[in-house]
Amino acid sequence: MKIAVLPGDGIGPEVAAQAVKILSALHSDALQIELEHAAIGGAGYDAAGDPLPAATLQLARDADAILLGAVGGYQYDKLPRPMRPEQGLLRIRKELNLFANLRPASLYPELADASSLKPEVVSGLDLMIVRELTGDLYFGQPRGIHVNAAGEREGYNTMRYSESEVRRVAHIGFQIAMKRGKKLCSVEKANVLETSELWREVVIETAQEYPEVVLSHMYVDNAAMQLVRNPKQFDVILTGNIFGDILSDEASMLTGSIGMLGSASLDENRKGMYEPIHGSAPDIAGQDIANPLATILSAAMMMRYSFGLDEVADRIENAVKKVIGQGLRTADIYTPGTHKIGCAAMGDAVLAAL
Ligand code: IPM
Ligand code: MG
Question: Which candidate in 77, 221, 310, 314 is catalytic?
């Protein structure tokens, strides 16, 4: 397996290094893992004047899977938009056609107190957000800022989905639901948006092929509310790019910390990019206090979804469970009575448990 490692910016390199420890430890005669690093985001801009350097994109194309840390930093915020770190991430998703973004949110029982919601609301939580990742407002044309007829500046973006784009991600959502609780909730805003009206129609059509899955529909505003009111009603949430971006951040906090959640972004052939759902957190970068578990759990998802190695994925996930069970915590999930450790020490603890 050839894995491209793109650490990125901020805490990205620190957390990616911990996942690399785990992947390196898994290397054996039966499981040959080759890791190659390249720059992306601000690091790509610094190294090659481009947030997605050509060499990085080529490496990503050649690799069997990609592990990404995080991108972004204050020093890049004033650059022209195409040069900003986020564009590196959006372009690699688009170039590699990584249209299906899987963002699981499940609660470790020991972390129920770290959630901002009452333990009884979140205990036992286990949901999966399937977010479309290469369409919608993020990529729709036309877009821009121009001076309108009234002589004032006007910004515009286009929410746009073709039926094939909706259908392919809907299939992924239903297939995942089949392997889980067989419930799928499609989230959109069909009471206001035509794009959502089409989304709903195509999801209903696709559902014909999955008669065992119980399909429901929810407007995004209601979904945002239901996620904090009664999140355990959800099994799989299927939604578009912008709504999925927002709802997945919301869902992450149910579990206590955004530092606990990994993600997979897959193409048609299940080639994937794996990254924590958190950002680059420049405010805490370089202090060895970031939580590497989201990135380590992303590596587990890589084993499961791109390589079909469920047993290896289970081993990594069990190692994380064990470390949580031992009471070891990074600052973001620390509660009195547990033991606070740094990012590298957390990586070492998971390695030891593995
Ligand atoms: C995410 C992030 C990205 C997104 C940003 C960094 C471009 O928020 O992966 O959720 O909006 O998709
Ligand atoms: Mg986001």
Answer: 221
Whether residues 251 and 293 share a domain: the answer is: no
Same structural domain, 248 and 114: yes
Distance 241 CA to ligand 2 centre (A): 10
Quick one: 38 and 122 in the same domain?
A: no
Cα angle at 320 between 315 and 325, to 5 degrees? 120
Can you give the pTM of this predicted structure?
Answer: 0.94
Residues 6+ apart with CB under 8 A from 199: 161, 166, 186, 188, 190, 240
Under 8 Å between Cβ of 5 and 67: yes
Span 309-334, pLDDT tens digits? 999 999 999 999 999 999 999 999 99
Does the annotation count 138 as an active-site position? yes
Give the residue numbers spanning the domain of 193: 104-266
Q: Does the pLDDT of residue 59 top 90, yes or no?
A: yes
From the candidates 245, 271, 274, 332, which is the catalytic residue?
Answer: 245
Number of domains in the chain: 2
Pocket test for ligand 1, best of 245, 275, 298 (most atoms within 8 A of CB): 245
